[in-house]
Amino acid sequence: GTEQLQADPLAALQTSVLKAEREILAKFLPARCKAGSTLLALLLVDDKMHIANVGDSRAVMGRGPEAQQLTRDHKPACSLEQQRITETDPKADISNDGYM
Predict the structure, then answer these.
(1) What is the per-residue pLDDT across 31-83, written as a single tens digit (0 to 9) for each?
(2) Coil, helix or strand for 68?
(3) Three-state SS for 98?
(4) CA nearest to 38, candidates 10, 74, 70
(5) Residue 81 CB burial class (10 angstroms; 0-12, 13-18, ≥19)
(6) Whole-prediction pTM value?
(7) CA–CA distance, 49 with 58 (Å, rounded to integer)
(8) Beta strand pairing status for 48-54 and 39-45?
(9) Helix, strand, or coil (residue 35)
(10) SS3 track for the chain
């Protein structure tokens, strides 16, 4: 609720992302659907940005003519992401083109 947002915005954002993931998986896993999803959420509390991104999405902030990337895409083709995936699930199947 509102108290958690003020006390620990990052935890509130993480809780929301995990809840959304559970709801999506509950709908797609029984149907054996291999569709993917992305998520980008920004929570602004007391002039601080808290950002969550999942999948092939990124947050970018414009300042005048400049654009600053705020998050890193979660693409299986990226070596850091491949490492994170295989550490989480050693049986994960990542194809030669970097997709799961």
Answers:
(1) 777 667 788 999 888 888 899 888 778 899 998 999 999 988 777 777 787 78
(2) strand
(3) coil
(4) 74
(5) middle
(6) 0.64
(7) 14
(8) antiparallel
(9) coil
(10) CHHHHHHCHHHHHHHHHHHHHHHHHHHHCCCCCCCCCCEEEEEEECCEEEEEEECCCCCEEEECCEEEECCCCCCCCCHHHHHHHHHHCCCCCCCCCCCC
